[in-house]
Design brief:
The chain is of the alpha+beta class and 227 residues long. 45% of the residues lie in helices and 26% in strands. Strands 1-8-3-6 form a four-stranded antiparallel β-sheet. It has a four-stranded antiparallel β-sheet with strand order 2-7-4-5. A hairpin with a 2-residue loop joins strand 9 and strand 10. The relative contact order is 0.14.
Length: 227
């Protein structure tokens, strides 16, 4: 992978200097996982930082035999950085929703590069603060109607990971159960709302191609802002 492509793909690395990017590419290890495979188990958190080159994953909180999806991540995102920094045990897994390609950088190498490149350090703090704000927003929306909460989830996925196509912003065809758990509404509510949005033409559901198209993104944004 070329340095320019590496920088453009990952917002985290947009301000890193060329020497940092070259060094990261040299020490990173590429992995591929099929859909349904565990990318990261709870006992492996803190060993490395993971960069998603392509594909979609879900982060699950586990409690014994029960698990709940708490986040969905796509191309250009990263995970594992908090466990690397605070070295605390985790009770979450990361599972591939689609075929996934990613790069890993070991904990030792990642911390080393943070000390060397202050711009990368600052950029990572900015993105971590953004994640905290997103969590705060979800907490504020807990009493909002299910349709508003689901629209907010779809808009967030579209903004963060959507690919602009003639038929609308394309996101992965996320299983309704995972979509419901991330949104914190019931599976029945999710199914009804997604069917209704599809009937209204605001979205187009295309299971055959594992895609959801956010056709009328402006209307979805307006609905998401009604909390």
């Amino acid at each position: 992978m070329q340095i320019e492509v590496f920088s453009d793909l990952f917002p985290l690395l947009s301000t890193a200097n060329p020497q940092t990017l070259e060094w990261l590419l040299n020490v990173a290890v590429q992995h591929e996982y099929p859909s349904g495979r565990a990318v990261l188990m709870e006992d492996a958190w803190g060993n490395a930082v993971y960069f998603l080159i392509s594909g979609w994953v879900k982060v699950r909180r586990t409690n014994g035999e029960h698990s709940v999806t708490i986040a969905i991540l796509g191309k250009g995102d990263f995970f594992g950085e908090m466990a690397v920094l605070d070295e605390s045990p985790r009770s979450t897994d990361v599972i591939a929703l689609s075929p996934v390609k990613l790069l890993t950088v070991s904990r030792e190498r990642f911390i080393q590069i943070l000390f060397k490149d202050s711009q990368l350090h600052h950029r990572m703090l900015q993105l971590m603060v953004r994640r905290v704000r997103q969590i705060n927003m979800r907490l504020q929306m807990r009493s909002s109607p299910p349709a508003v909460k689901l629209a907010h989830t779809l808009v967030s996925l579209g903004v963060n990971y959507g690919q602009n196509l003639p038929q609308g912003k394309e996101i992965f065809y996320i299983p309704w159960k995972d979509l419901a758990e991330v949104t914190e509404i019931t599976l029945e509510e999710t199914t009804k709302i997604m069917d209704k949005l599809n009937e209204k033409g605001w979205i187009k559901i295309d299971p055959a191609n594992n895609s959801i198209y956010l056709v009328n993104f402006k209307q979805l944004e307006n609905l998401a802002n009604k909390f």
